[in-house]
């Protein structure tokens, strides 16, 4: 039985110039000679320059030993990772609780505890919620010791400390989002504003930054010279884009600190 000779390498190179990157990669797995013929820089340089021009310049400006096929593969994988949809968070608003407290020196002045499902998040789906303190007090009635949101004389508001904790239902985990003292900025009749940088997720990231900030605002009114909290709003802000995170992005961040092995 007559054996069929493989095509000469010149023919392979000629054909390969008309193949797309995916077909080239598959064809190069046929045998060693095909792999050599279809991995040359002459074939992959125009493909890399067209799809990933910034990587293509590395070959000429930084390292001539890195093949264009290798650079194309790196760009392809990086692009796929960028376009890949993040996984759904393992926690939801239905199994976390938000606890917010306002202290004046050592005295607790306001306490609000709400289940995630009770919070009215922004209609655009961002992780920012508002609480009507007076309405919440009416709902709780005698079950609350909030003291009507009275923070005392307006000129002593610099002594405030604000805490914000997120608790995983069943007390499986707690994450302190904010513990901010003496950093509030108060404008009569407007808002008191607190912010604190959040830690990066992961146990080995002490030298990095998260790029996220916890943001809490107090809506104030004045009664008989005393500041009273009417509402509270809180969220997580990205200092890279200066936008609030979407709910799912915030939940993915929080799950790193809420005992992820239990969720």
Distance between the termini: 65 Å
Which secondary-structure class do the elements indicate?
A: alpha+beta
Q: Report the mean per-residue pLDDT as an integer.
A: 79
Order of helices and strands: HHHHHHEEEEHEEEEEEEEH
- Count of alpha/pi helices: 8
Beta percentage is: 25-35%
C-alpha geometry: elongated
Please give the largest β-sheet: 8 strands, antiparallel
Number of strands: 12
Helix content: 25-40%
The radius of gyration computed from the alpha-carbon positions, rounded to a whole number of angstroms, is 29 Å
Stretches where pLDDT is under 50 for at least 5 consecutive residues are 139-146
At a glance:
The protein has helices spanning 9-16, 21-27, 32-37, 41-51, 53-61, 68-83, 133-140, 247-254; strands spanning 96-104, 107-115, 120-121, 128-132, 150-153, 160-168, 173-181, 185-186, 191-197, 212-223, 226-238, 243-244. The protein has 263 residues and is an alpha+beta fold.
Structural description of this entry:
With 263 residues, the chain is α+β, with helices and mostly antiparallel strands. It is built from 8 helices and 12 strands. The strands form 2 sheets. Strands 3, 4, 5, 8, 9, 10, 11 and 12 form an 8-stranded antiparallel beta sheet that branches. Helix 4 crosses helix 5 and helix 4 (41-51) runs parallel beside helix 6. It is elongated and about 95 Å long. It starts with 8 loop residues before the first helix and ends in a 9-residue tail after the last helix. Mean pLDDT is 79; it is low at 139-146.
């Amino acid at each position: 039985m007559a054996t069929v000779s493989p095509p000469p390498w010149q023919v392979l190179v000629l054909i390969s110039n008309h193949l797309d990157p995916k077909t080239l990669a598959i064809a190069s797995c046929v045998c060693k000679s095909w792999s050599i013929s279809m991995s040359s820089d002459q074939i992959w340089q125009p493909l890399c320059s067209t799809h990933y021009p910034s990587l293509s310049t590395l070959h000429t400006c930084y390292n001539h030993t890195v093949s264009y096929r290798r650079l194309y593969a790196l760009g392809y994988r990086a692009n796929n990772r960028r376009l890949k949809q993040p996984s759904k968070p393992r926690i939801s608003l239905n199994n976390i609780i938000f606890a917010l407290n306002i202290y004046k020196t050592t005295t607790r002045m306001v306490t609000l505890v709400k289940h995630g499902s009770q919070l009215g998040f922004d209609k655009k789906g961002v992780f920012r919620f508002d609480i009507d303190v007076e309405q919440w007090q009416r709902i709780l009635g005698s079950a609350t010791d909030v003291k009507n949101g009275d923070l005392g004389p307006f000129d002593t508001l610099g002594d405030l400390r604000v805490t914000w904790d997120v608790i995983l239902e069943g007390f499986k985990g707690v994450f302190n989002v904010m513990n901010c003292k003496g950093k509030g900025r108060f404008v009569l009749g407007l808002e008191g504003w607190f912010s604190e940088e959040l830690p990066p997720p992961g146990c080995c990231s002490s030298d990095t930054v998260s790029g996220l900030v916890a943001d809490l605002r107090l809506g104030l009114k004045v009664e008989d010279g005393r500041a009273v909290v009417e509402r509270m709003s809180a969220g997580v802000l990205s200092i890279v884009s200066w936008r609030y995170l979407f709910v799912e992005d915030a939940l993915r961040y929080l799950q790193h600190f809420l005992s992820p092995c239990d969720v």
